[in-house]
Amino acid sequence: MSGVLFVISAPSGAGKSTLLAALKKRAGGFGYSVSHTTRDARGREKDGVDYHFVDRMTFKEMVKAGSFVEWAKVYNDLYGTSFSGIEKQTASGFDVLLDIDPQGAKNIKKKFKDSVLIYVLPPSMEILEKRIRDRGADSESVIEHRMKEAPQQIKACVWYDYIIINDDLERAVEEAKAIVISERCKTIRRLPDAKKLFDISSP
Ligand code: 5GP
């Protein structure tokens, strides 16, 4: 794979979607792989844009057919990253941004050793709950379920490559941008370009 594979995870309510939207505007060069999910669309979510919304049977058929690079049960629904979602982006020369949960992130790291894992933390559990409630998209039982799972999800940050604490959106976006730019400039990724410009085959 030629582009960088960035994986971003966060517990629901950490402000990840807002951060990602700002990052894409500021850093550019990203393709976004649209996941498949069995959950219902929320609010203004559009099929094919936010997710490919499919029923369980379709999802399971895709699993059987080997269509997913990774898939996982998150909360009570199934979510998966398709090979075609990633390939579409890399074929266009983009880096790929995957917004997936820690189980998915672990599987991606196993398959793509060079992938870059970033975990976004909320500043506190209280703010996490407030953000989920303010979003007004989930029922009380869903909120309770997400709050119950959040501490376990948060522990996963220890094995990510980077952690961003999203207490101030502006700073969080700048940190994410700094990570992206640094990764793009790493020698292992820039050397092919440098070799096109200069004869650096022997030291
Ligand atoms: P939500 O329902 O709030 O959109 O997403 C719930 C969780 O599922 C989030 O943590 C999100 O990152 C994760 N998720 C979304 N797409 C995928 C995917 O394709 N694979 C995995 N493993 N997790 C996903």
Keywords:
203 residues, Rossmann fold, four-stranded mixed sheet, globular, five-stranded parallel sheet, 9 strands, binds guanosine-5'-monophosphate, alpha/beta
Q: How large is the radius of gyration?
A: 18 Å
SS element count, helices: 8
CATH topology of the domain at 5-33 and 94-197: Rossmann fold
Average per-residue pLDDT, rounded, comes to: 91
- What is the CATH class name of the domain at 5-33 and 94-197? Alpha Beta
Which small molecules are bound? guanosine-5'-monophosphate
Unreliable segments of 5+ consecutive residues? none
Largest sheet: 5 strands, parallel
Strand count? 9
| Strand percent estimate | 15-25%
Q: What is the level-2 CATH architecture name of the domain at 5-33 and 94-197?
A: 3-Layer(aba) Sandwich
Q: For this structure, what is the CATH homologous superfamily of the domain at 5-33 and 94-197? A: P-loop containing nucleotide triphosphate hydrolases
Distance between the terminal alpha carbons, to the nearest Å?
Answer: 27 Å
Structural class: alpha/beta
Strand order of the largest sheet: 2-7-1-8-9
Percent helix range: 40-55%
Q: Label the overall shape.
A: globular
Order of helices and strands: EHEEEHEEHEHEHHEHH
Provide structural commentary.
The protein is of the alpha/beta class and 203 residues long. It has a domain at 5-33 and 94-197: Rossmann fold, CATH 3.40.50.300. The chain has eight helices and nine strands. It has helices spanning 16-27, 56-64, 83-91, 102-111, 125-135, 140-155, 169-185, 187-197; strands at residues 5-9, 30-32, 36-37, 52-53, 68-74, 77-82, 95-99, 116-121, 162-165. A hairpin with a 2-residue loop joins strand 5 and strand 6 (77-82). Helix 1 packs across helix 7. The longest helix has 17 residues, at 169-185. It is globular and about 65 Å long. The mean pLDDT is 91. It binds guanosine-5'-monophosphate. Guanosine-5'-monophosphate (5GP) binds next to strand 5, strand 6 and helix 4.
